Request: fold
Amino acid sequence: MSSLSFGELFEGECRCGGDMVVVEEEISKEFKELLGIIYRNFEVLDFKGTERELEVEVESEELKRSFLSVYNELKIRGYIAALRRGKNKAIKLLVIKFPPPKAERPWINVILLVITACTTLWAGLYIFKNPISAFVLSSSLLAILGAHEAGHRLAAKRNDIEISNPYFIPAPPILGTFGAVITIKRPIKTREAMMQMGFLGPVLGFLLALLCTIFGLFGSTETGVTLPALPAFLLVLTRNPSMQLNPLLFSGCVMMMVTALNLLPAGQLDGGHIFRGLLDAGKHYKLTQTVGFSLLLIGLVPVFITGSSISYLSVWGILILLLFSRPHPGALDDVSSVPQRYRLLAAISIIILILCMPLPTQL
Reply:
C-alpha cells in the first residue's frame, strides 16, 4: 500500500506518491468481503488489519447513515463496527470479530427477584414492625425498580439494543435491596440510543416514585418513621423536615433520592450516559472528576464546621472517583453529533436531579 509501517498512515499523509494498490493474494476472502461492504457505504482513504481486526480511514457526507448500514451488514457476519475520530481528526472505522453473547439463565433472575422480595419484606418488618406495612414497602420498592428497568427495556427495544433481563440485588434490612441491573450484550450503536437508555429508566422510576409519594402524603402516619434526609421538592412542599413517613411515602422518598444519585452526570451512571451523548470522552471524563470532587468537598463542609460525621455527599463523591477512574467508552458511533432536541433530555434529567436531591432534615 505504501512505504509506511503498520499504523503510521493514520498519523499523516500517504507518502507513496500514488493511488493505493492492493494485491489480491495478500488478503483473505472474508477480509475482502468486509472491505467491499465498507466501500459501498464510505469513501475509503486507507486501511490496515489482521485476521480479527480491521481499521479503515473513511469519509462520508452522511456518516450516521453510512455507519448504521455497515454496522447492520457486519453484525450478520459476526463482526462489530465502531466509528472514532483519530488524533489528526481523521475518521476511523474499526471492525472486530465479536463473540456471540452467552445464553441467559432466567432462573437466576427469578431467584434473585424472590430473594429481593424476601429481603425487602424483612426490611419492612424491621422498620415498621407491621406485616401490612412491610408488604406495602416491599411491593412499592419492587414496582419502582421494575418501572426503572422497564424504561431501559423500552429504550432498548426502540433502538434494537440487546439487553439481559433485570437482576434484582438483595441487601440487608436497612432497605432490603441495592436496586437492579441489566447487562448490555452488544455495545450501543448511537449516541441517541445511549441517551434514551440513560433517560427512560430513571424517568419512569421517578414518575412511579412520585406517585407513591403523593399517595403516601394522604396516608396514615401512625406507624411512621423519620429519615435523616428527604427529597428537595418534598421539603419545600411540606416545610416539615421531621415529618413521619408511612411505608408508601418512605419508599417513594428513598427511591427519588436514589434516582438523584443515578442521574448525576458522571461515569456510567444513567446521567453519565445522557451527558456522554453530548460530550466527547475527554470532556465527559473531566465532568465526572468535577462532580466527584465537588460532592466530596461539599460533604466535608459540615465536618469542619460542626464536627459531624462524614456526609452522604462525600460518600457519593468518593464512589464516583473510585468507580469511574476511566473515561466512558461512549457509543459505537462516537463521531456523529446528536440532534439539538436531545439536549432537552439532559435538561429534564437535571431538573429531576434537583427535585430529588436529598437534603438533610437536621443541620
Summary: Residues 131-158 form the longest helix (28 residues).
